[in-house]
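Re: [ENG-882] Designed sequences occasionally contain unexpected residues at chain ends

Forwarding the minimal case from QA. Structure tokens:
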């Protein structure tokens, strides 16, 4: 059995029912915004993933694309840093 380290994109809706905060962080100027999960689902559809969201985001301050994602405060006390796609179980 082969294990691959390729991160899978995580559907945003998997965070919808959790008590988590989804942050997008510009990697250039560290401008940070909290994303509204229900709003993302309305705009991009129920199957949108972290990867698709990142592709559509642009820093309001410096214009850099592809911000980093951070997920804070899940009920399990899990804290994920970096990209949502790196979340594995
Ligand atoms: Zn920026």
């Amino acid at each position: 059995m082969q294990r691959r380290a390729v991160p899978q994109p995580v559907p945003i809706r998997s965070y919808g029912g959790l008590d988590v905060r989804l942050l997008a962080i510009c990697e250039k100027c560290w401008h940070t915004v909290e994303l509204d999960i229900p709003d993302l689902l309305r705009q991009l559809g129920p199957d949108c993933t972290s990867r698709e969201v990142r592709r559509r985001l642009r820093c309001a301050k410096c214009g850099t694309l592809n911000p980093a994602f951070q997920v804070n405060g899940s009920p399990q006390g899990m804290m994920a840093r970096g990209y949502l796609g790196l979340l594995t179980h």
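QA comment: On inspection the terminal residues look reasonable. Residues 75-89 have pLDDT under 50 and may be disordered. Proposing we downgrade this to a documentation issue.
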